[in-house]
Amino acid sequence: MTCEPRRAGERVGPLAVTVRGTPVPAGSKIPRIIPRVPGTRTGPPTAFRAILVDSSDMGGPNRKGGRRRDWSDAIEQAARVAATGLPQFEGPLQVRMVFVMPRPKSHRCKSGVPRESAPIYPISKPDVDKLWRLASDALTHAGVWADDSRVVDMKASKRYDDREPAGVMITVEEIVQEDEP
């Protein structure tokens, strides 16, 4: 996305992004203590520093770091394409994200039709806030907005939908600020 300069009073129209695939959450943030290298200007040999590491980036046989990066890259790429020619959002933003989760096989009959008892909403992991966090970070990297602190009104939901494939539908809209009389 090119960050084109905005003209005075110009409003960025709503941006709609749809990405198909299985939504993947951002990992939990885990603190790690790192020793500083002895003899450098960064501190004495006994100094340490703390950093936050995304748990999905920590490696290991069961980690989803690769899937997380692929999902983030897919959202970022789709956002760049959808926002081509639009200036970056600058004002207060309203963002809606609907995550369609893949339905487990246990929800289906042998014929493939969902059981009558199959729930509409997934009340298991992943958490909707972690799905939101990864998607909003991808939108930041795509240049849709400078920082997700501009989002003042947000709604995220996750559901099963047998008519649509798994993925996310994102809508970003600038909130019009009325001048006070």
Q: Record the strand order, biggest sheet.
A: 1-6-4-5
What is the CA-based Rg, rounded? 21 Å
N-to-C order of helices and strands: EEEHEHEE
CATH superfamily of the domain at 15-26 and 65-174: Holliday junction resolvase RusA
Total DSSP helices? 2
Coarse morphology: globular
CATH class type of the domain at 15-26 and 65-174: Alpha Beta
Question: Main sheet, how many strands, which sense, barrel?
Answer: 4 strands, mixed
Distance between the termini: 37 Å
**CATH domain topology of the domain at 15-26 and 65-174:** 60s Ribosomal Protein L30, Chain: A
**What do the pLDDT scores average to?**
81
**Residue windows where pLDDT falls under 50 for at least 5 positions:** 5-9
- CATH architectural grouping of the domain at 15-26 and 65-174: 2-Layer Sandwich
